[in-house]
Amino acid sequence: MNRRTILVSTGIAAVGIFGLGAYMYVPTVDKNAVRNAADETFLVRSHAPVLGPVDAPVTIVEFFDPACEACRAFHPYVKNIMSNFEGKVRVVLRYANFHPQSEAAIRILEAARMQGKFEVVLERLLQTQPLWAPHGRAADSVWSVIAGTGLDITRAKKDALLPEVTRVLDQDASDVKAAGVKGTPTFFVNGKSLQEFGPQQLYELVRSEVEDN
Questions:
Q1: The whole model's pTM is what?
Q2: In this structure, are residues 129 and 67 in contact, taking their beta carbons and an 8 Å threshold?
Q3: How far apart are CA 209 and CA 213, in angstroms?
């Protein structure tokens, strides 16, 4: 079984787990937004979380909402791409605060990053998303789902309210508008927007950039 088949097969399984409805949500990029933004600073900021090697030749920028069902469904695809092109791809996460519970989750992620717990808390938030971001039903507190991650919650609750976290939220909100992002997840690969949304399309765009670098 080749890598592409593995990617698609794993992706199908993830869709089954996370719900076909979430996967079928197709985000769009404003037609007036740039189509090749490699030189635009609004895609990559120094404060943005980075997954993978910081000096990787290929950068996936994902505009991401932790409360978004489609983001949760797509997360395994992104991890598979990083695995398939190990050492050659980094993911820069930019926050898109589109849902009622999103800001609380983003603040928790930023507080977790201060403690070196960003990835473990991110995984927990995505795993438990139906509890704290159920979209139309009563929700649990976001804080209630992160016990056991090793996060110092008392400290995190203070850090989550720091002015620098608010500045991250404000800057990312501004950059969401500058990039023309209308839904999540929205991807740019080395500044190129993903023209046709889907896991295989993202894989092919990344593969093309890896081969060119």
A1: 0.83
A2: yes
A3: 6
Residues 157, 162: Cα–Cα separation, whole Å: 9
Q: Show the domains of the chain with their CATH numbers.
A: 3-212 (3.40.30.10)
DSSP 29: B
Strand partners, 61: 92, 188
Phi/psi at 180 (nearest 5 deg)?
75, 25
pLDDT at 79: 96
Per-residue pLDDT band for 29 (boundaries 50, 70, 90) equals low
Q: Across 35-185, where does the E strand assignment appear? A: 50-51, 58-64, 89-95
Give every CB contact of residue 24 below 8 A, 6+ residues apart in sequence: none
The structure tokens 């919650």 sit at 153
pLDDT score at 157: 96
Maximal C-alpha separation, the chain: 50
pLDDT at 70 over 60: yes
Residue 16 main-chain phi, psi, to 5 deg: -60, -40
DSSP three-state, residue 161: coil
Q: Amino acid letter at 41? A: T
The 3-state DSSP class for residue 175 equals helix
